[in-house]
Amino acid sequence: MSATAATLTAPSKFSFKEWIFTTDHKRVAILYIIGSFAAFFVAGLMAMLMRTELLSVGPTVTANPSTYNTWLYFHGAAMILGYQIPALTGFFANYYVPLMIGAKDVAFPRVNALSVWLYWMGIVLALLTFVVPDPPDIMWTGYPPYSIITPGNTALYTFTVLLMGFSSIAGGVNFLTTIIRMRAPGMTWNKLNIFIWCTMGAFAMQLIFVPFLGTAVTMLSFDKYLGTHFFDANAGGTPLLYENLFWFYSHPAVYVILLPGVGIIYEIVATFSRNRVFNYKGVVYGGIWGTVLLSGIVYGHHIYVSAIPNWMAYVMTFTTLLISIPVGLLMLGLLGTLYKGSIAFKTPMLYAAGFLFLFLIGGLTGIPNAMSSIYSHIHGTQWIVGHFHYVMAVSITTAIIGGTYYVWPKMTGKMYNEVLGKLGFFTFFIGVNITFSIMMYMGAAYGLPRRSYDYAQFSEVEGLQQIATVGSYIIFLGALVILISWIHALIWGERAPQNPWGSKSLEWTHAQSPPPPGNYAEPVKVSEDWDPYGYGK
Amino acid sequence: MGRKSFFIILGILFVLFLQFTATGYAEAPLDIKEGWNELWHELMIDLLIIGIIFAVSTIYLLIKYKRKSPNEEGSAKKLSPLAAFGWVVIPVFVFMADDIYLAAKSFELWGHYRNVPANALVINVEGYMWGWDVKYPERITTTNELRVPAGRPVKVRLTSRDVVHSFFIPDYRVKWDTVKGRENYIWFYPKKVGEHVMTCTEFCGVLHHAMHGKVIVMPENEFNQWVEANKPKEGGAI
Fold first, then answer.
1. Predicted pLDDT of residue A309
2. Does A500 touch chain B (CB under 8 A)?
3. Which of A14, A173, A207, B35 minimizes the number of CB atoms within 10 Å of its CB?
């Protein structure tokens, strides 16, 4: 196998075929990140169109609400399934896991290639939204009966979800095996990087919960195209079955996205503070595995006002509030890692600092959503949109972009420009705070509904909507600066040294920038007193 | 931190924790709108305190431990097993105490949300793509217009003709989905004469954005006159 891998990935002239048929985890990772950022960019364009539409009451960009609904469908589905999950469990897991544990590659390199192929097929299917005459208009949640009676193409949604799901399951089996079986000799469990633990937690949840989403969306298409009646109240079915199945996956999916994002932030904070992770075992067994343990009993708050039994509203209020405990431990670990550190504010560290504030706001504004009585007002309003953009969309995007800057010298062998990097961060940070705080305010104070092409009944919020839209343009500008800084680094970047950050983690201390196929010149062994965070010795 | 002081702090937190769980339920029926506003206010203060503690610590740590020379490294020591245990158990108790406190508060208000006062006026609302049919006991039907008398609690029985909608009156802080094949309910207490928005908050298709109407709170005598004037004649068709 190693011979094949070597011939396929030998550093030679650029060959399209070599990239498509690669089994090298680093190239697979790069294929993932290209797809992810492409999805991010297109879904971001949709967001710009929507924000522009909301500039004024009545038609602004389009007079056809269905067009707006299709943008919104694509924005949600592509951001979650096409951008965040693949960037985290596809790109970062692929790039970091074998390097951090001192392995040559993943356990099943061909399965890994299959994962990224399935993912790209999913991207192609998602993009067909803009080609077919009957684009899906069902939102990424796809609630029946609407998704069944709509003339929109629900099958496209079903198959996009299924392909991404298969890709995740294949990735889960691969990475759990890799982490369990392929660690360098001497690397015991309590010497793993926090990111590795986070990846394990995320993939454990994917393996448990993805089948429920797969089941739900498959039943949806059965109902629509094959005449079954799972969700049809006329024939004894109920739409509530779908809502339960859907959120039983889709709430844990938030933690599938959160954990690797937090893991990246831990690596950045430890490296740029040159400090050991505060209370390592508390973070791993309390924070990370506590989140995994609770992930399956939190979903009920999405359906408090969708007629779940009253006792379940009580139970879910309590279990949902409990999630603040492991998440609080994760935050505490990050703050503790700053204590007595030596913090250098390079671009990745700025993103990590930004994360600390954005995630704090996002996490705290989640607490009202746990309380069924409070939720009676804020469900389905812009408050929810603002909240989950803070906690998931924007926080984790700072982790993804910050993490990309962090890994950049290793991955490309080039340094990026700090001025451009910092400029991009501050523009992005200002923009997101304007847009999403105003969204939360409009939701809580006025009850402004989400997923709405127009807001004639709340015309008094027009001014606020305009400020939120200006904020979104600032975000877009920030994203452009970030993109320019990466293109600039690829073309004009200086050669990166092996370990520009002075990190103690294996990928920086032992591998070249960029690492060759097979990663390490000779098999890595770690000593008794080695620690990925062994600073200040 | 000594072992003894550690257990004293633990003991104090445990007593606080029991204190919070003992929060009782109020007996008198309550106007849920006011209850919501009060709890929201309290909640925002709670979140603001936690938020400020975290934000100020973050800013302090970021400034205080800025790197001074290029080769400097952090100097945090590994925690002792007891300290590591304490840094998990104490935060868990603090977060849990707050969680239980908020849960108790939420349960109390939720009880009021789900228990309709006995004297409530019952009105049926059916959601459809894209509007609301309002049906009164006197066999009056209106569309996108919910007329109620001031000074009497109103129970709204919610059904759907087609897809899932969500019936929402922001000013009264009440909302519930309408689901085909099920009957759900909400109640609210209109005290003053006036007009309020009612709107759909569950995506339901092309004209979801246009699915809204008005709640019109009228003086009781005017409401009764309106009912009399619009009631179908005896023996007339439904």
1. 87
2. no
3. A14
